[in-house]
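Two proteins, back to back. First:
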Amino acid sequence: PCSRIPKTKEGEAPFAASNSNLAWNNNHIQFISGGKNGSRFYHSSNNGQNWSAQVVPIQSGAAMTGAFSMDAQDSNTIVIGGGNWDSVLNLTNTLTYSLDGGQNWNEVELQLPYLSCVKWIPNSTRILALSGRAKGGPSSLFVISTDANSSIEFESDNYISCSIASDTLAWLGGTGKIASFRIP
């Protein structure tokens, strides 16, 4: 019931970036919100009967800022990406992750642009992250190590969403195109 979900803040909403703002794993449902007044991570451990919401440390302050994309390896291991959709090249805190179900967040110390889609790479502590937006403009693809706070950047030709097929292969999607990417 909606009455059990914590009240939204003014201007808070879940963005529809890359169809990756919602995760379900067994009885755990998780989704993210963003907006001018900050971002939150919503979690239910009993199929939506009860909910909690934690603040996510990610860029905010304007209507199109905040958490845009998330991925959950399981109910505890979560990555969230986002930033400023109106200023994709603004380098700031656009990536964070949790290893305890969203109770504590670990900010990735790298200054990254807006991230439209983030995915955990299986069997690793690495994240695949895409920067770009459907209306075009600059874009990049990153393989980010949470252990070393380091990244490898690749040109992405404005791919804005991805799906992980294995620990060595991802599928990338953009406006009118699809590609495979061998994960190094």
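And the second protein:
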Amino acid sequence: SNELLNEKNILLNLENESKEEAIIRAGNLLFNNGYVGYEYINSMLEREKRISTYIGYGVAMPHGTEFGKEQVKKAGIVVLQYPEGINFGGQKAYLLIAIAAKGEEHLEILSNIATSLEDETLVDKLKNTNNKFEILQTFNK
């Protein structure tokens, strides 16, 4: 199916690790679930070096460079939850929402997610939930 997000794309209660390790974990999930080619992971790390993808509210949204978009097979997102928060350039990220998409679709997904996350009580709930369905409901709109 062409859904952006399914249960296989969500990892809850992860132990703290570096932001690079977290991005690699997210990239591997996108790769293993058929959304991207392997090189996309490097393009996510490269993108992060240039400018942090932390967006506020305890959320980071890693994605690839322009060059990395050639590696995208189909649009998808993965969600990684770190209940203790990982260091993202001096900020704490509790949710990593990694995105694989091209062109217009990319911007649409980014803005939809950003809009969902303007509700701080919702973010608080998601960063502590043990229920993947709550995460699916939020992003599969």
